[in-house]
User: What shape does this take?
Amino acid sequence: MRGLFYFLIAMQELGKILVFLGVFLVIAGLLIGFGFGKGWLGKLPGDIKIEKGNFTFYFPLTTSILISIVLSLVFWLIRK
Assistant: This one.
């Protein structure tokens, strides 16, 4: 019986996580759909762009770090 109890609690936690991820994806999709960050996101100082002839290498280093910090903060606040 105790194993079933722990299983049900784990399923409740999984449900909460899935609902949160769904809400997060909807909000992110709406922000992207309405053009949030279209002018500056990916064009920050520190983003690497190398163009040589018909070859282009692009690595948004600063943008990646910024997104990582924001997501870490959001998840930290949720866990608290």
Q: What stands out?
A: The first strand starts at residue 48 and ends at 52.
